[in-house]
Design brief:
130 residues; mainly beta; four-stranded antiparallel sheet; 1 helix; globular
Length: 130
């Protein structure tokens, strides 16, 4: 059974940092793309960043580029999202998910589509106070 478990969310002041973790079981991240999405209250789920573990290619949404950094550790079957300079607009539930669509494709379309992703975690809440 494939399981994704996010952790690391919490409450932080604007300008602060958080590091989200996505631990996968029943699934090997090698040769796959792992993405982070977020869903703010009353809004749809949007792609934030993804990484294709085979070559380290990444993609970031314009709204987070330069503030968030995605990374992976294959030996731990884990993907991380370092979030710096957080803004109140970053408040959302953050989800990780798996895909066979590469980050290069995300670069070409400048987006991550939910339909590209198969397995999802339950999410971790990030709250940023102003």
């Amino acid at each position: 059974e494939v399981q994704l478990v996010e952790s690391g969310g919490g409450l932080v002041q604007a300008g602060g940092s958080l590091r989200l973790s996505c631990l996968l079981s029943g699934f090997t991240i090698d040769r796959y793309t792992i993405g982070w999405f977020r869903q703010a209250p009353g809004k749809g789920r949007e792609g934030v960043s993804c990484i294709t573990t085979s070559d380290g290619t990444t993609w970031y949404a314009d709204s987070v580029r330069g503030r968030l950094t995605i990374s992976s550790v294959s030996a731990k079957n884990a993907v991380f999202l370092q979030m710096n300079s957080l803004e109140p607009e970053d408040k959302a539930v953050y989800y990780c998910a798996t895909s066979i669509v590469t980050s290069t494709t995300a670069q070409e379309f400048n987006t991550m589509r939910k339909s590209w992703y198969e397995y999802w975690g339950q999410g971790t809440q990030v709250t940023v106070s102003s």
